[in-house]
Amino acid sequence: MKFSSGHVLLLAAAFALESCHAFVSQKPSFALSNVNRQLIRQDSCSAVQTSNTALSMSFFEDFVASSDEKTRKADNDKYLAELQGRVDRINGLEASIEDLGDDELQAKTAEFKKRLADGEDINGSLLEESFAVVREAAWRVLELRHYDVQLIGGLILHDGRLAEMATGEGKTLVSTLPVYANALTGTTSFVITVNDYLAKRDMEKMGQVHKFLGLSVGLIQSGMTEEERRVAYQNDVVYVTNSELGFDFLRDHLALTPDQTVLPGGGGEFGGFCVVDEADSVLIDEARTPLIISKQVPAPATKYETAKQLAEALKPDIHYTIDLKNKACTLTEIGYRDAQKALGIDSLFEIGADGEAWAPYIANAVNAKELFNKDVEYAVLTDENGEKTGVGIIDSFTGRVLDGRRWSDGLHQSIETVEGIKVSEQSQVIAKVTYQALFRQFTRLSGMTGTAMTDAEELELTYGLKVIPVPTALPVARRDYPDVAFKTRAAADNAMVQEIVNVGGGQDGGRPCLIGTTSVAQSESIVERLKEEGIEAELLNASPKNAPRESEIVAQAGRSGVVTVATNMAGRGTDILLGGCSRTMSRIKTRDFLVADGIVSSDEAKKLPPPPQEEYFPCPLDDDTLFMLKDASASIKKEFGSDLTAIQLEEILTVATDTTEAEDDPEYIVKLRDVAEAVKDA
Questions:
Q1: DSSP string of 475-525?
Q2: Closest listed residue to residue 162, CA positions, set 281, 287, 249
Q3: What is the separation, in whole angstroms, between the first and last Cα of the chain?
């Protein structure tokens, strides 16, 4: 039976009242004075009144919440019914659009732009026509056709709302619809993803649809130069991560001249249309922490070391309190007094000869000691000789080590001191922006995710995004089992390992298993635990050596019997196909052969994922296939010479492996497509 908070309070009050009466009615030797009896009666009445008030408030809150939910559902149903009318009109255009040749279909882009320039409303019939054109283009280029519910999702995004679509419903394909329509207006359409891998994957595949229709497509990746970013942002459609966009925005605002900016317009600002993938993660979870750019200033290593030694001597609950929820430690009066005595100063806040007080150093040292754990909040970076070189922050949302990011206000140096690493220069904040301020700049903001209704109120209040659940194309076949709670981590791990054994994980013919973890340390612990049972597992976590291998690990995660342990870096938007993905494996093998054949320079080759071990592939290639690979490599070298970049190579591979044939395909694409198919069938 379930009770509301009001029910619980009422039961507690009733129990208290019965206890009082029972106690008063005991033998005379235990009787209370009349005064005490009166007090008990008053307290009992007060308890009942309080519980009744709480019960009333609970009923009121439940009623309001229920009423809001019913109103929201009624509004959503009415809105979806309106959109269905537009979907019917889009479907009505399908036959005439199908009859168009490739040139005629591509000419629609210029036609739409002219009609918009002549003053036609983008929200009228032109929107429906543009959606019909994109659906046909996606079929011709990718052999993917938008379902009706995906058209509904696209209309929701175009209206500046958030589409909640279940996992596997094709949100990436949905985004092509409003992105194309809004790019016709002449302003850049942005597609925001949570990591570089997804941004690159989506640009390479979905970008082919936009390119087929005559739009230019750009990609922003970490490590790009200022000029490369400027060129990429000038395209009609730009794929970029939320953090890269935010830091480019900050850097532009620190620029001294417009020539030093990279965002469209040259003024450090941007507008236009934006669709945020995994919107709840970006707009709610990650938005709790602002983006910061800082400059480096000398750090007093001796002071950090002294603070560390002092923090080690301080005891929790005596010298300081720990707030795990808010990740903060606070010194007590005893803590302040003993710290001041140990340092031989009158006050931790007293400014010393170096112009700084001791208080922030001690606070950071205590925080580093109690709140920051190796392989959970940070990872120790090493060089090729295994020597410690620094500390890397682990992104709690992607599981990756954030390259070049540092904690500010001396915290990073305090953690380096804990790990026995030479203290680096410390950061001083010079620019800061929140995601709320960043994304509200777009004139038309939209988002899509699989989980948003729980945050619907916050998303609407903060960003003006109404959440609209989109029905699934087919009934959901997935079975969701209830959660199971254990008293200890060890008990949970044992039960999980036993479940994997029961379903045949790690065995020929067994089920493929994916284990999600919340930290690097936990993922490595589970892998070791599986080894004890004789199960070899693939590990996908924040370790820098694993991040580039994400595509190959994901490609085989659906193979029979394969067990994959991953932090949530692999849980956002990556597809795991049952049986494995032979197309991706073919692409990896083809790419590795081309790189080994010197198709790109050594500097560009370093930007590509390292080749997997030979046993990763199920069988060797025959002589005929190897000859086809050499022929394709020679054809690409003839076309590009020594100027081919890593990004261009990946795009060429996408065209060859993921898109359909076209009459005007160049010779090197034809040869590469043939050999990729031969590798896949090997």
A1: -----PPPP---SSHHHHHHHHHHHHHHTTTTSTT---EEEEESSHHHHHH
A2: 281
A3: 59
Strands, E assignment, 67-183: 162-164
Task: Quickly list DSSP for 21-89.
Answer: HHHHTS-GGGPPPHHHHHHHHHHHHHHHHHHHHHHHHHHHHHHHHHHHHHHHHHHHHHHHHHHHHHHHH
Q: Which are the contacts of 174, defined by CB distance < 8 A and separation ≥ 6?
A: 146, 150, 153, 154, 157, 163, 165, 448
Backbone angles phi, psi at 447, to 5 degrees: -155, 165
Q: What distance lies between CA 124 and its chain's CA centroid?
A: 34
Give the mean pLDDT of the chain.
Answer: 84
Q: Which amino acid is at 469?
A: P
pLDDT at 92: 97
pLDDT tens-place string over residues 356-411: 899 999 999 999 999 999 988 999 998 888 889 899 998 776 667 887 788 888 89
Q: Which two tokens stand for residue 592?
A: 């590795």
Name residue, tokens 């032979």: 582
Note the pLDDT of residue 548.
Answer: 58
**Rounded Cα–Cα distance for residues 352 and 340 (Å):** 13
* Close Cβ partners of 397 (under 8 Å, ≥ 6 residues apart): 194, 281, 285, 286, 568, 572
Interval 265-284: pLDDT, tens? 766 567 789 999 989 989 99
Contacts of residue 544, defined as CB under 8 A and 6 or more positions apart, other chains included, come to: 381, 392, 401
Instruction: Give strand pairing partners of 293.
Output: 431
Average pLDDT for runs of 10 along the chain of length 682:
36 34 35 37 42 47 59 89 96 96 96 96 96 97 95 97 91 96 96 88 93 96 91 95 93 88 76 91 86 82 94 95 90 95 93 89 95 91 88 78 82 93 81 91 92 90 94 87 92 93 90 86 88 88 60 79 77 69 86 92 86 79 92 93 88 86 86 91 78
Check if the beta carbon of residue 567 is closer than 8 Å to that of residue 517.
yes
Name which of 625, 287, 603 is nearest 458 in CA terms.
287
pLDDT of res. 39: 36
DSSP tag of 99: T
Residue 217 CA: distances (Å) to CA of 189, 191, 291, 458, 674: 10, 11, 26, 32, 26
Cβ pair 315, 322 in contact under 8 A: no
d(CA 192, CA 244): 10
C-alpha 179/C-alpha 154 separation (Å) is 9
Q: Report the pLDDT value the prediction gives residue 542, as an integer from 0 to 100.
A: 54
Q: State the DSSP code for 568.
A: G
Per-residue three-class SS string for 197-234? HHHHHHHHHHHHHHHHCCCCEEECCCCCCHHHHHHHHC
User: In whole angstroms, what is the distance from residue 554 CA to residue 561 CA?
Assistant: 14
Query: Which is nearest to 592 in space by CA: 654, 642, 653?
Result: 653
